[in-house]
Amino acid sequence: MYRWRLQSTMIYRKLIVTLPIYGIFLVLLTPYVYAGGPREDWPDVYGEMGQEGDRAAECWVSGFDDGQNNPFSQDRHKECLFDTGNSYADRPYYEAFKVGCRDAGNTEEICERFTD
């Protein structure tokens, strides 16, 4: 009985020492975790497109930002049309606008109407 009590006391003491240390690391390291979220969640095919992929990624971010804060821009949409063979990836501004619009709390139907 005494031996069991001694072991449980030692485990308890280790926990008292280690848990605050883990807590401190968690608090200190959390701000440095990178999470781009849907704003930077463009289709993987852009990585295979070279410089055009960089432009498509810029169109995606522009569309997402406009979907949250600004009206749909037909001119920007026309600038951002590509021919990748993937209908979703071909229209980065349009698709990202819908994602940003939904992320702002609108329904899919409302976001569709904004793009007309």
With helices defined by DSSP (H or I, 4 residues minimum), what is the helix count? Answer: 6
Radius of gyration: 24 Å
Give the biggest sheet: none
The count of strands amounts to: 0
The run of helices and strands is HHHHHH
Give the N-to-C terminal Cα separation: 77 Å
Strand percent estimate: under 5%
Q: What would the principal axes of the Cα set say about the shape?
A: elongated
- Mean pLDDT, nearest integer? 78
- Supply the helix-strand structural class: mainly alpha
What is the percent of helical residues?
A: 55-70%
In short, what is this structure?
This protein is mainly alpha-helical and 116 residues long. It contains 6 helices and no strands.
Task: Describe what you observe in this structure.
There is one protein chain. With 116 residues, the protein is mainly α. The protein is 66% helix and 0% strand. The chain contains 6 helices and no strands. The protein has helices at residues 2-29, 51-69, 74-79, 87-90, 92-103, 108-114. The chain is elongated, with a radius of gyration of 24 Å. The model has no long low-confidence stretch (mean pLDDT 78).
